[in-house]
Amino acid sequence: MPLDQRFKGVGAALITPFDQQNEIDYAGLKRLIDLVSEGGSDYLVVQGTTGESPTVSSEEKREILAFTIKNNYKSLPIVYGIGGNDTKSVLDCIRDTDLTGVDAILSVCPYYNKPTQDGIIAHFNAIADASPVPVLLYNVPGRTVINMKADTIVKLSAHPNIIGIKDAGGSIEQSMELASRVPDDFLLLSGDDNLVTTMISVGWHGVISVIANAFPKEFGELTWHALEGRFKEAARLQLAFLEFDTLLYIESNPVGIKKCLEIKGICSSDVRLPLLRASQELGEKLEKAMIREGFI
């Protein structure tokens, strides 16, 4: 099979805007979809971790997905997050979700109960067997505690319905090993914005990005410079985002990127507990960085 080109480039991992009553701000979500679409994002990722999926109800998730599909005026491919650490619950969610208009699901490595690598393989094979759309794996050991090892990912890449992985493990060595071992049609997508240029240089295909929420044009240029071999131009933009990327995570994701969107007038920086809105200090640092780098 050829590489699925729909998911090459930049997928914007959409935040979920909230109003002051902590309800979904659909007007803000519409502005966000328009911003990332007009900015050149290649596809939309709905209800990943950046969308605060742990504190968004099942009903709200369905409503957000339906709203995004309805307001996807550029008809960009849509990836929808369905994952968890109870395999049966994930399978039930896949069965009960109308995936019309969804091009793939993104499913996180099971967290908290710390399965073995064989348990991870069994979990994802069951999901891939049940899903009516292709599956993207999501490795994020900083949140799940366990790392999906390269051997595990290579074994899962043999499943015909598992088409790629978003990896936020931060290991260049594992990234290089995967690039050398997975089939040519298996998508390798960075989950670390600050490693995009490096990972593409060893054969990766793009990124599912937090930064693309607020700066889709700049981050799209960075990614496609790298994909098209213009590494000097990509490196210049990558380094411009270096300090900025660090600031985004000081008070946890998506607190920082929501503050950037508030500064840009897209939506408020409200988050749901146990997260808190960005501190005044962080907000000032982000705004200074945005001005210094010419992002506003």
Automatic annotation (TrEMBL):
Pfam families the record matches: DHDPS (PF00701)
Top-rank lineage group of the source organism: Bacteria
SMART domains: DHDPS (SM01130)
This enzyme's EC code(s): 4.3.3.7
UniProt keyword terms in alphabetical order: Amino-acid biosynthesis, Cytoplasm, Diaminopimelate biosynthesis, Lyase, Lysine biosynthesis, Schiff base
Pathway: Amino-acid biosynthesis; L-lysine biosynthesis via DAP pathway; (S)-tetrahydrodipicolinate from L-aspartate: step 3/4
Reaction(s) this enzyme catalyzes, per UniProt: L-aspartate 4-semialdehyde + pyruvate = (2S,4S)-4-hydroxy-2,3,4,5-tetrahydrodipicolinate + H2O + H(+)
Main location: cytoplasm
Entry annotated with the keyword ATP-binding: no
Entry-linked InterPro entries: Aldolase_TIM, DapA, DapA-like, Schiff_base-form_aldolases_AS
Active site: Y138 (proton donor/acceptor), K166 (schiff-base intermediate with substrate)
Localization (cell): Cytoplasm
GO molecular function, one term: 4-hydroxy-tetrahydrodipicolinate synthase activity
Binding site for pyruvate: T50, I208
Residues carrying the site annotation Part of a proton relay during catalysis: T49, Y112
Job description of the protein: Catalyzes the condensation of (S)-aspartate-beta-semialdehyde [(S)-ASA] and pyruvate to 4-hydroxy-tetrahydrodipicolinate (HTPA).
PANTHER family named among the record's database cross-references: 4-HYDROXY-2-OXOGLUTARATE ALDOLASE, MITOCHONDRIAL, DIHYDRODIPICOLINATE SYNTHASE
Family in the record: Belongs to the DapA family.
Assembly and interaction partners: Homotetramer; dimer of dimers.
Name of the protein this chain belongs to: 4-hydroxy-tetrahydrodipicolinate synthase
Designated gene of the protein: dapA_1
